[in-house]
């Protein structure tokens, strides 16, 4: 479906450009720079680069993509990593591998990875999709220059984990819960403690989902230390605010993920909130900057205050791609998320929490699916998403059907409000 759409789009654009050339009204391309090459940035690049009136450059510190929602399994199974890895190879547009050091009003300063030299990349429109940072190996750093180096990091982490007996995980959100479940199911002899200052795990999920997750972790033998804050974290211990000291052979910090917004700190410090996220308007423009947009984990949209995940990041990219093309054509901009799901509606809330290889908890608005059904859905999403990044037709086909289907189901069948529905299937 996507290749057919792209073919017709290219034919239409070719005809338009031919008429412009004949009439002598050839329009100079508008330049777009996208900073960040994960879910949001790559989706924006794929949508904008098919427009031949735009000159699109993607700036990313590495030349590959990895499927972050599946990365925690690599701590217990490093051989899983290649299935999450994809070289960034777009059909159109430019990829500049390097670190964006600063975004200015009309250009981005980039330190190229190839030679360490600075390059100034000018733009008419800029998209900040820099994502968020995380402790440890969860996100790659500049030393992870390729698949082999990145996989070696997980082999080292796995070696350390297998050589340990006591594990302490700080953070009872999605990341901490998934990591605890991966370790507990793959290495059941480990003593695992999960610590969080909240009284509940994954507090943004529906009550049934939270109860199921806590029950499964308890069944796996994970000790839950909830409702007590953390005073300090060391390499081999965690001290709670009540004075309790938890000794460990390995400690994983899974608390929060600060936005990578330093690239715009100089340009628009007033647009950053207390967390460091970039505040955007309903058109997803950075507050006070008409030609600069922000999407994904790096930004905060006050109107929706959405949860941050890969699905929402790509919805952001859909809207920004439309708005940049409309701005270039002199048309009024669209509002988020109205232009995607209809006025007064919200994007579907889709979260899938892995609880080991064969268990999980899938939330679609107020519908909760657990057990093997969730695990199958997680695998299917992971498989097709990575295939799409690799430009495989099956990936495009699946998501060209799945995204509008999710919006339709959320709008007309399983909306975000109403009674909680739950289906549980035991292993």
Layout of strands and helices, then pairs:
Blueprint: H1 2-23, E1 30-35, H2 39-48, E2 54-60, E3 64-66, E4 85-87, E5 94-103, E6 107-112, E7 118-122, E8 125-128, H3 147-162, E9 166-170, H4 174-186, E10 191-196, H5 207-219, E11 223-226, E12 230-233, E13 237-240, E14 245-247, E15 250-253, E16 278-280, E17 292-294, E18 299-301, H6 310-328, H7 338-341, E19 350-354, E20 360-364, E21 367-370, H8 372-389, H9 393-412, E22 421-423
Parallel strand pairs: 1-2, 1-8, 2-5, 8-17, 9-10, 9-15, 10-11, 16-18, 21-22
Antiparallel strand pairs: 3-4, 5-6, 6-7, 12-13, 13-14, 19-20, 20-21
Helix pairs in contact: 2-6, 8-9
Description:
The structure is a single chain. The chain is of the alpha/beta class. The chain has nine helices and 22 strands. The chain has a seven-stranded mixed β-sheet, covered by helices on one side. A four-stranded parallel β-sheet has the order 11-10-9-15, covered by helices on one side. 39% of the residues are buried.
């Amino acid at each position: 479906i996507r290749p057919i759409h792209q073919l017709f789009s290219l034919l239409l654009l070719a005809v338009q450009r031919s008429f412009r050339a004949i009439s002598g009204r050839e329009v100079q391309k508008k330049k777009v720079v996208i900073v960040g090459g994960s879910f949001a940035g790559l989706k924006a690049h794929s949508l904008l680069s098919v427009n031949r009136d735009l000159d699109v450059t993607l700036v990313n510190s590495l030349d590959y993509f990895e499927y972050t929602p599946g990365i925690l399994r690599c701590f217990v199974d490093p051989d899983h990593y290649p299935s999450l890895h994809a070289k960034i190879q777009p059909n159109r547009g430019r990829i500049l591998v390097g670190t964006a050091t600063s975004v200015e009003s009309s250009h981005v300063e980039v330190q190229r990875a190839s030679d360490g030299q600075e390059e100034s990349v000018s733009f008419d429109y800029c998209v900040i999709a820099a994502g968020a940072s995380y402790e440890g190996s969860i996100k790659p750093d500049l030393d992870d220059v390729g698949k082999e180096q990145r996989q070696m990091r997980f082999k080292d982490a796995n070696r350390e984990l297998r050589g340990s007996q006591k594990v302490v995980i700080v953070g009872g959100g999605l990341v901490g819960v998934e990591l605890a479940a991966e370790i507990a199911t793959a290495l059941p002899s480990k003593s695992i403690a999960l610590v969080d200052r909240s009284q509940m795990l994954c507090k943004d999920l529906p009550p049934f989902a939270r109860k199921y997750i806590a029950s499964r972790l308890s069944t796996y033998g994970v000790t839950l230390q909830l409702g007590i804050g953390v005073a300090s974290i060391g390499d081999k211990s965690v001290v709670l605010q009540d004075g309790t000291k938890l000794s460990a052979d390995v400690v994983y910090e899974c608390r929060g993920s600060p936005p990578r917004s330093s690239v715009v700190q100089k340009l628009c410090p007033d647009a950053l909130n207390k967390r460091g996220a970039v505040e955007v308007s309903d058109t997803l423009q950075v507050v006070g900057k008409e030609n600069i947009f922000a999407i994904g984990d790096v930004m905060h949209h006050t109107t929706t205050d959405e949860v941050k995940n890969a699905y929402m990041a790509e919805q952001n990219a859909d809207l920004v791609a439309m708005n940049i093309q409309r701005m270039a054509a002199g048309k009024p901009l669209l509002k988020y998320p109205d232009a995607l799901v209809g006025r007064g509606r919200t994007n579907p809330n889709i979260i899938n929490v892995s609880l080991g290889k064969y268990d999980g908890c899938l939330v679609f608005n107020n519908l909760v699916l657990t057990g093997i059904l969730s695990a199958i859905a997680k695998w299917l999403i992971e498989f097709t998403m990575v295939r799409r990044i690799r430009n495989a037709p099956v990936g495009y086909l699946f998501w060209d059907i799945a995204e509008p289907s999710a919006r339709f189901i959320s709008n007309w069948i399983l909306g975000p409000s109403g009674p909680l529905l739950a289906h549980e299937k035991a292993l």
